[in-house]
Amino acid sequence: MSSVPVAAQTAGTGAARAAARRRNAGKNVGGTQRRPRWVTYTILGVALLVSVFPLYFTLILGSSTPDEISRSALPQLLPDASLFDRFADVMSSDAINFWKAAFNSVVISVVTAASVVLFSTLAGFSFAKLRFRGRGPLLVFVIATMAVPTQLGVIPLYILMSDIGWIGKLQAVIVPALVTAFGVFWMTQYLGEALPYELIEAARVDGASMFRTFWSIALPAARPAAAMLGLFTFVQQWTNFFWPSIVLNQNNPTLPLVVRSLQSNYFVDYSLVMAGVFLVTLPLIVIFLFTGRQLVAGIMQGAVKG
Amino acid sequence: MAVLTPTQPPPGLEGPTERTPRRVGLTQRLSRWDVKVSPYLYISPFFVLFAITGLFPLVYTAVVSVYDWNLLGGQGDFVGLQNYTDVLAQPTFWKSLRNTLSIFVLSSVPQVIVAITIAALLDQNLRAATFWRMGVLLPYVVAPVAVSMIFGRLFADQYGLINELLGVVGIEPIRWHADTFASHVAISSMVNFRWTGYNALIFLAAMQAVPRELYEAAIIDGAGRVRQFFSVTVPQIRATIIFVVITSTIGGLQIFDEPRMFDAQGLGGADRQWMTTVLYLYDVAWGNQKNFGRAAAVAWLLFLIILAIGMVNFLVTRRISTSSTRPGPSRRARRHVRSRRRAGAGRAMAVRPPAAGDNAAVPMPSSTDRRKR
């Protein structure tokens, strides 16, 4: 299978080794060795169809007129060129700030992804490789906070944002998302395995400061896991709706908020709404096509770590 | 080093023998300080930001809940438990709890079953394995808001595609928005759409860690594929199943995006038939009432419920996982189970980064997504 070198290139040698180990683990038995029959492919094909259908459906409705939509469940079978007119309508609509929302979504997603990766790697390096008093309890605290429904703190958080005048501003969404307990836990796990103590010692012996050790040794070693973490954070923020819908408004929205106002501001024109839904989803689909392999690997690695 | 020793004593006064220990002393002191302080410095961004934007608001919710506090008027008088009794006396609150639990059950149970089935199919020597894995993960990148808009059309009461298809097989159109249970099914299907593939990959990873000797032994004992699945695979990935269920609980009970977008009003339907508790919280705080005190009481009550359900989950988990290690077939297998369990826990959390994002601090539970996530 060609996936080993690919994994090594795209996800780093650590991931490649893990993948090889997993594959070899499955090699020795007859049961799973033989190629599955057509039944398996048929069922998976149906699952794939279910995955793709809603996206196809947005393109169909986006190509139809509101009148057609109100009279038929599936007005046509293939999207047509009128779809692009609807895209243009969404982008130029006065009722929504499409470009501003797109810009805001990019800023929020990129900044939080970068920040989560940096701070998580920093904390993960400390937890995984440095000795200090209170390390154990603090790490337990981090893990415990992953199970805390912080979403329920929205009211004081809103009061806080309002007191400092951040309502309607991007930093109200960005600042609470700058760190995640999951990120810290994830990087701690990864660096614990991927970064040998010998490397750190060598750097220290050569006179590197702690920060230099982090920057030149730990950060490069963390690259594969950091890429996955950044990806997950990006997707999470891009699709985030609850908190932005509370703290931002129509004058300074993100893309999910634009979808909301497409539905509520108009006498609902589903053709336009679906064109908007597709536009909002498109960037993530493009990213997914290029990085889906890493997302899959990230989910699966997280599941079997240890 | 040179920088660290700027104070060069005039030559002659002190011999080099004096100077050398001094220099080492300073460097050492600095470096010891570096070693001591750096670990705390590196973890501090997380703790400081989390304390301000995650922990403090959560705790302060309890404070807000005992005051008369409005969106516009700000903090008012201390009212004790008045907000709680008000909330508990509201039929809408109880309705929202019922809806939340109903949607949660409808989304988690079928989802886990389907995800395990898909994982079992993926856990074979497939052609183009990565293609299929990516295929089932695709819905994960579609925002819940978008999913809800799309499914809102698919489940339209009139001329919706689902009803048309049901009509083909002779079933009367279902009122997906008007009917309580039907609306729960529709909303659950959105959650399931987005998270089933994601969870299938988690289960797939757990399945790949099952020691292959167990299958060999089962085959020798004459077990067929189905028997192998139920007697080997399922018991071996039980820990992962439990963790997925726990994380879905935390997220599922906070579902918001999907019910909010299911119709144009976003308030859970004419009769509040699909209003969930977080949607109710939102409505109390930023909708008509603009009553922060009462909304905080709702948040705190929901928090206690999530905590209680989490505890039950935890106790059940512990019981099940202790008993599952007992009949372990071999030391190696047991080790696998243990490590998988550990991993499962981590993953589960991870996984569900909440889309919630909301506060972001906690990835998983976040909102809606999470759920299932």
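qc> Residues 82-335 of chain B form a domain with the MetI-like fold fold (CATH 1.10.3720.10).
qc> done
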